[in-house]
């Protein structure tokens, strides 16, 4: 036989390569489904998509993270997971195609990706057991076996009809034999069965994973928050302006921003939750249960939180009524002193159940401000997305240096001896919230009618308070806006200005002045390393 004819018979045709790619996709689907089921028996966070996603977040440079938050908002995690699935699908298609020619090599490639998933799961900061590798390993083994079997169906007839070519091609590199025929019916049945079985296994895994959080859900429903010993004062009637389009004074829980690295929201059973306080200068280490905190005097405060990823004019700021215990009281009971009183620790490192670490200045936490271990938010136990059962809230500090959700450990240390999660990635060690303001209405590119147009929004400078807000129309003079009543210096403040709008395009700009006399700077800076700054402007066209 001539070499040209031999090559033509050995080389798989395009339709068979396409079926090989399909086999790879089915194998990838099976891997994820089996891994999901195994993860239900281990823990949801050990799922390969979650583990690889978490490792990807940790390895992503801070500017890229900031870009993702800016462009995708609270959907950044969904976009990441979809991206991982797209990459896995492409790789599965490629491996399936490769397996048509090199059957054992393709199957081995699947096992290699399983090893990557296992390594990612074991590298997570909340991983405590080798069993975290099981979902990736078992899923990869199932996928490799399925891929090997499906590709075998593509050449089942060819093996009986071309024994000579089989030996030739195997000697050439363990590739599959010449494809003179294939088990079409067997392949279709096997592929359909694999798809159906994978769908069923995946659905079962998702159902079991969802049920794992039932104890936490039940524990939250059973919680009755007692009346605070130190209740918040009623919100002044004039604190909330009746201006259409302005942010409500208190942000509903469902609308409150969420920025964190958790691809799976932790669901912690409050009955088994514990908080440990220990470290440098802690003379009396202690461990507290949720009931221990409930039995203490609770305080209730209105506090505005701000994310350091909030761009000028951004939405990652919200105001809520929090109920909890004074963190300074717990620290004092444990013998902790701030540096100003001779304490050896200047950094408080809080750790979440998912391994997140956040560093806060001990001096700020113990300087008399209402730093809380919060148990409730807007009259109900904390939502799971916002840290149930317990989270930290510290007025005046950006969230990445204060607002640890799902907290389970507090260690006293120094800034020189330990860098928390975000500091390791280029963010500042200390980050007091900057004086900022935002125009809520009119919206950018709005087209209001000529005449009186109400310009309104919010301004914040937590723990300092807002003293004045000014608005500028185009390049005109600054005009002082009317301020709504102040609740506390730890909350944002609404403002408004009636504008006699004339036809044409206009630029509206706002700036605020805090109670220390500091005027909001016009210098534009990025969110990295310690929060964005600059004046917020909107462009409108008056008709």
List keywords for this structure.
5-stranded antiparallel β-sheet, 18 strands, alpha+beta, 543 residues, 5-stranded mixed β-sheet
Description:
This protein is α+β, with helices and mostly antiparallel strands and 543 residues long. It has helices spanning 3-10, 14-42, 48-59, 62-72, 76-101, 103-123, 134-154, 156-161, 163-171, 184-211, 214-222, 290-294, 327-333, 362-365, and strands spanning 274-279, 286-289, 299-306, 317-326, 347-352, 357-361, 372-377, 380-381, 391-393, 407-413, 436-441, 451-460, 466-473, 478-480, 482-483, 493-501, 504-514, 536-542. A five-stranded mixed beta sheet has the order 2-1-10-5-6. Strands 3, 4, 7, 8 and 9 form a five-stranded antiparallel beta sheet that branches. It has a four-stranded antiparallel beta sheet with strand order 11-12-16-15, with no helix packed on it. Strand 7 (372-377) and strand 8 form a beta hairpin. Helix 5 packs antiparallel against helix 6 (103-123), helix 6 packs antiparallel against helix 7 (134-154) and helix 7 (134-154) runs antiparallel to helix 10. The longest helix has 29 residues, at 14-42. The chain starts with a helix and ends with a strand.
Concise overview:
The protein is of the alpha+beta class.
Give the helix/strand layout.
Blueprint: H1 3-10, H2 14-42, H3 48-59, H4 62-72, H5 76-101, H6 103-123, H7 134-154, H8 156-161, H9 163-171, H10 184-211, H11 214-222, E1 274-279, E2 286-289, H12 290-294, E3 299-306, E4 317-326, H13 327-333, E5 347-352, E6 357-361, H14 362-365, E7 372-377, E8 380-381, E9 391-393, E10 407-413, E11 436-441, E12 451-460, E13 466-473, E14 478-480, E15 482-483, E16 493-501, E17 504-514, E18 536-542
Parallel strand pairs: 1-10
Antiparallel strand pairs: 1-2, 3-4, 4-7, 5-6, 5-10, 7-8, 7-9, 11-12, 12-16, 13-14, 13-17, 15-16, 17-18
Helix pairs in contact: 2-5, 2-7, 2-10, 3-5, 3-6, 5-6, 6-7, 7-10
